[in-house]
Write a structure and sequence with these properties.
mainly alpha; two-stranded parallel ribbon; two-stranded parallel sheet; 11 helices; globular
């Protein structure tokens, strides 16, 4: 949801050419289930799963594999995700002047909630500090709550075919429909009455069979 909204805002709706997205990147720095060969396979599965989309919109799609996560596997990507992603961006520093990093949280959530992920709570000022004179790392999407982001994408047809939110341990890149990120997305789509639009990326019938239970367990 977060990355797709950033793309929608700064490619489809952006009017300033200096701020319009002109390249897409896909990094392996810890967000594909840790380190090692299993994470690399998941990284490649996800990359291949999504690569038709950049072709459709006519943008280069640049993968970057790494073994960064192998150095701190006892921790999790959320412990230092902002620093890992920034490190990956700065590998390309000489070729970039701006890079959008999609925020998980709104300004209100960052201000009033206490997160286990401390760095995410402060990402609005961590990224400017990690930027360089030639490459600005921009935290994007804090102006929206997650429900707002879901609503923005309800009529964006590519999202109906490529939305990928899953964090399950399965090696497949497809949405499992069972992990907490899949469920929160499905419940939001359900509340908007647009589940069927996303039938290509979720098993809607399977969700419907358990939707009452999922809603009762929301907190």
């Amino acid at each position: 949801i977060d990355s797709f909204v950033t793309f929608y805002d700064h490619f489809e709706r952006e009017t300033d050419p200096e701020y319009k997205i002109d390249s897409l990147f896909f990094f392996n720095v810890g967000s594909h289930g840790g380190g090692g060969e299993k994470a690399k396979r998941k990284f490649l599965e996800r990359y291949n799963y999504l690569k038709s989309f950049p072709d459709e919109v006519g943008l280069p799609y640049i993968p970057m594999d790494s073994n960064l996560f192998d150095f701190y596997q006892k921790h999790w990507e959320s412990d230092a995700g902002e620093f890992c992603r920034s490190a990956a961006i700065l590998v390309f520093e000489k070729a970039l002047d701006k890079y959008y990093l999609s925020s998980d949280y709104s300004y209100k959530e960052t201000l009033f909630f206490r997160f286990n992920n401390v760095t995410a709570s402060f990402e609005t000022f961590i990224y400017p500090l990690l930027s360089t004179e030639g490459c600005e790392i921009i935290s994007d999407g804090c102006q929206y709550m997650r429900t707002d982001k879901t609503y923005l994408l309800k009529d964006y047809e590519p999202a109906h075919r490529y939305l990928n939110v899953c964090v399950s341990a399965q090696e497949s890149a497809c949405n499992c429909g069972k992990c907490h990120k899949c469920i929160r997305t499905l419940v939001a789509l359900d509340s908007l009455g647009i589940l069927e639009r996303f039938s290509k990326v979720f098993d809607i019938e399977e969700y419907k069979r358990k939707s009452y239970w999922h809603k009762c367990n929301l907190r």
